[in-house]
Amino acid sequence: MTDYQHALQQEIQELQARTSAAQMPDEMRRKINKEIVALERSVELGSYDEKYEKVSRYIDWVLKIPWAAESKDTTDIEKAKAVFNKHHYGMQEVKDRFLEYIAILNLREKQAPEEDFRAPILLLVGLVGTGKTTFATSLAEALARKLVRIPFGGMGSAKELRGSSRLLLGAEPGRVIRGVCEAGVRNPVILLDEIDRNAEEANTDIMGVLVELLDPAQNHAFTDTYVDYPVNLSHAIFIATANNTTRIVTAVMDRMEKISMPSYTDEEKIVIAKQYILPKLLRDAGLKPEQFKIQEDVWKTVVRPLGYDAGIRTLERTLQGAVRKAVRIIVERKFPEVIINMDNAKIFMPKF
Prior knowledge:
- This protein has helices at 3-21, 26-45, 49-64, 77-87, 92-111, 132-143, 159-162, 175-183, 203-214, 250-253, 266-285, 299-303, 313-333, 345-348; strands at residues 122-125, 147-151, 189-193, 222-223, 230-231, 237-242, 257-260, 292-294, 338-340.
- By secondary structure, it is an alpha/beta fold.
- The protein has 3 domains: 3-64; 77-260, Rossmann fold (3-Layer(aba) Sandwich), CATH 3.40.50; 266-348, Helicase, Ruva Protein, domain 3 (Orthogonal Bundle).
């Protein structure tokens, strides 16, 4: 036996030990053990290179899947209120719907902990920058659950969700199973972000996978093409976002509860900028609050540098640019502070 074969055999023994120690369905364990036996034979016969790469990679992925590991929910309503208020200004109706959601989880945990609860799937619909993604992040934080974000923007094939055949060299699971593996638990909050923005030619196939993911009758046995064995996703909480629902098929819409995200008024945006956005930007830039000031009459220009915008992303970019310019002035010219007023505002506003 060559040194290389001996090294491979040691690696196979390590795979066997990890498989024995891992928690997984018995049928999956038998399947893995058959693969390991086949690997041992191929090493003995000397025809092991490509096969070893494929099989060992497959086993590594299977061992990463959290077949039973779960995080413990925190369903304290007061804590949840604090989390949502920390990340969102206004939007009380949307907050109330999420708090109702957590309240139901809390009650069921106390009264029927042994029963599986199919959490409703919320679809947040609104214009860019209205806080859809942040609400999903806040829900995960409030519940103390891991967050898995799956971006659909530009997704060109259902294989990106469901994975490719493991017979192909370099194949791996789809984004759903990869995300769950990264989370390390089978009950994360799974954010299906911008489900209306996948590629036109792949929309039908992608919507078909979404039906399976979001249907309680099916997602307890979601089968990724690469893993080729059903994985229970019924303990995960799914949240979806979309800019509009035009391209979302009826079968998918029927499995979700739509929540319309309101647009922000100029007054709300000014409060958000002062309380949420600007303090973070100053911290990130290393500025003290007293070193960067915006006079009150300038704020209307700050929130509308290019006209009306429903969200806050343009506002965020505008303030980022202003803070960067202020930092350069303070460093280069040794100014103790920068005060933006109506006379110098153009210097700090975006130019198009």
